[in-house]
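Z., the sequence and structure:
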Amino acid sequence: MTVSGLSYSLLVLSGIIGIVIKELDQYKYFGISFSYYSILLLCNLIFVTENMLTFFIYFELLMIPLFYLLYFDGTQINKLRAIYLLLVYTVLTSLPW
């Protein structure tokens, strides 16, 4: 697995975001921070992949912690609409046209 220049800069940025999440972890409960760390890990896997099939699998796996994050951290009015729109966008853009 080789890391190109753009992938390396995105990995460094993800590391910085991970440090910020760790510092802000004292203000949140465990479920939300675990979701943030899952998203961060899957983004890092997406950045270093070279195969399109694994890229697609990692991208689809990224939707699980995103739904979890929206459902448990969103406000009551907007969270169901946001989950619905994310699901529609993901399904419509992943279809081969």
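The two ends are 31 Å apart (CA to CA). The chain has a mean pLDDT of 80.

Let me know what you think.
H.
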